[in-house]
């Protein structure tokens, strides 16, 4: 350990106590990466586990005094390298700030510390007949991490993303000043919306120490429909019609045939789709409906089935509960299936939902030109396309990704719908975004973090 | 006209043409105020009507060069003085940028210029079976103004406020640089959310020249229920139960007995509520439901009626269509009724919805202490309480308002739910808000507007 690191650890121990600071390999090694496939791990000088906003403030004052870069970490399940520290920097882990502070039934609100996981919150709200609806693939993800990336997931088509659920925050600025934004309030028009500015900022503006989240009545019944189609274009064309029909889907996902085969095989899942139907299916639409009324759900499911048939589905399967649950779980695990299949990167471009077919055609052409494969699935109702990229050569893959992002942006889309930019996509983001916008974002960054200690190299340059 | 103003007008005419610039009283007098009751009008040096983002950019370059303060103006229906210019400043009116650029049916999106009114957009979307759901009292309000104040209204309990509908913006910085944020995208995690930062910033960060708005399927059927209660507390206590019931109200308003009497009298509206019921009613709950299915609507309306009876409603009236429409219209016009009744100010504090009874008790006590009256109604589902303040003395009224805002904030609320801070409430906002937060907002303001030419004196100090 260098002298600087030793002094740092001593200062941090003075704030949080010696048991809450860790230094030295291999102990800190696990804190050097997240789940991003294409970013190199880094060894931090130390990991610290604060237990309160006051301790986070103390930690940030130490880091500011010593000009040590700080990376916040929830569960480390991010896919863009935003939780990968600067080598020799400090990781602030929120694993020991994982309390659900309040479930407020009258206001339909939960107040949580950032280390609370989605699973933990789901279990806590279920007893009250309430639900926190954000449902990204990884339910071990923390709410702090969800706020940092503006996590989305399968239910966003009905309930929106993290941004739409966070009503207020407590956050610590790099100076150690603590701010509170918003509250148990569905609306406010009282100054700049700092809540929304911090959401999705990937740990570069402030460290979130508490979040006030919107809850909803938990619907009693769900129905799941799986529809194979002869082409991805037909699937994509069906999406706006399903949304416009008014059935209000909870989930509206597409999966290409390869991805469906891979995840059902990985999970040893037999959906009862005959071999001849599978052979002719190029893509699948997965639709889930929910309701408090069993009879309304049945009527809507029937109506949805007729609509999908009219839109060209070769078959319409209403999946029994257990199969439906296992398919949704398998869909959640797409990332792991793609990783196991040897994917070199995962991207999640977002485009206007009606532009999905055009984007997928462009993606196939780009991949072909680079002798690569891109395969995937996506949140069809949101226009959020998740693609596994198979191309081992870093240079070729970088060129392919640049073209892929550019194609999405040309269609009015953006680089990421829910994974964030992180370290992995920073260069692409800086190269493809209007310089006036980047300059403005840099000025906003300075307004929060003039010394640039918060997650340097994530989103913007160091 | 001073020499400076003459030169200004000449420069502006060079950008937009001489027909699009106006100077000199009484011509510009109408542009010196909005609908705020408690702010003094001001005479601008000139009013300019740009017709494109490029012209807005040119106008802002002129203003920056000449250090002339700039106030953007939509329909001038704001209630906080955010459209009141600095004396001798420049008003940029968006009346001639009032085109609906696109209704995109597949993506459920409208792209509009800032001068488009809510009425205009409602008429344009109706033909497609779509709806833009934000429904503040004043439907002649412009979308640009709605974005500037984060307008809310009666339907926010179901659909959210302006912030939840705006997917992207085109905006001009004071330098004349044009940025585009977001897009036809329900989600994105690609850099700081500039869209959300500009929404609700009351013309102090950038001038919005285009907005991309989310549309929804327009429901076919509506039902309206009016329930008198013996006390405001009972009404407020009923609100969380109605939300939790899952009927998904489109509108959930409370009106105190005085306000109900005033608006029905002003609109000469007979709701068929017998005199003895009216005499015993201290407050009313107004609930509107919507559905595409007539049978489901009937079942939900019946269920709602039973619930309200259980919760202490003295009667439950299902209003016939015409009466319902007229009552909602009368509710929209509450501001005008209060103004006609001689109210000296209107405020719209927002608190956690379960805290409405406590806030109303505090408000009554504060008013009594100051020998004043506060009466009103509000968006009960959102905790947004609209109060007409009757107190002619400016000093007494300022003290009363300070206490009222403080009481709301003590309950976890904020000064304004949807009207904004503007000029009227700036001093209260600066005095009652944590100085760390104010300092951060000032730094954000400087990141957009280093010369401070955009709406100085609104929200923050000049």
Give an account of the 3D structure:
Two copies of one chain form a homodimer. Chain A is of the alpha+beta class and 462 residues long. The first copy, chain A, has four domains: 3-93, 2-Layer Sandwich (Uridine Diphospho-n-acetylenolpyruvylglucosamine Reductase, domain 2); 100-217, Uridine Diphospho-n-acetylenolpyruvylglucosamine Reductase, domain 3, CATH 3.30.465; 221-335, Alpha-Beta Plaits (2-Layer Sandwich), CATH 3.30.70; 342-436, Alpha-Beta Plaits (2-Layer Sandwich), CATH 3.30.70. Helix content of chain A is 37%, strand content 20%. Chain A is built from 17 helices and 18 strands. In chain A, helix 8 (232-244) runs antiparallel to helix 14. Chain A starts with a helix and ends in a 14-residue tail after the last helix. The model of chain A has no long low-confidence stretch (mean pLDDT 95). Chains A and B meet through strand 9, helix 7, helix 8 and helix 17 of A and strand 9, helix 7, helix 8 and helix 17 of B.
Compose a concise summary of this entry.
The structure is a homodimer of 462-residue chains. By secondary structure, chain A is an alpha+beta fold. The first copy, chain A, is built from 17 helices and 18 strands.
Topology, element by element:
The structure is a homodimer of 462-residue chains.
Chain A: H1 3-16, E1 21-23, E2 46-48, H2 53-65, E3 70-73, E4 90-93, E5 100-104, E6 109-112, H3 118-126, E7 130-131, H4 143-149, H5 156-159, H6 162-165, E8 166-172, E9 178-182, H7 194-198, E10 207-214, E11 216-217, E12 221-229, H8 232-244, E13 251-256, H9 257-266, H10 275-280, E14 283-291, H11 294-310, E15 317-319, H12 321-332, H13 334-340, E16 345-347, H14 356-369, E17 373-379, E18 384-390, H15 394-410, H16 426-432, H17 435-448
Parallel strand pairs in A: 2-4, 3-4
Antiparallel strand pairs in A: 1-2, 5-6, 6-10, 7-11, 8-9, 8-10, 12-14, 12-15, 13-14, 13-17, 16-18, 17-18
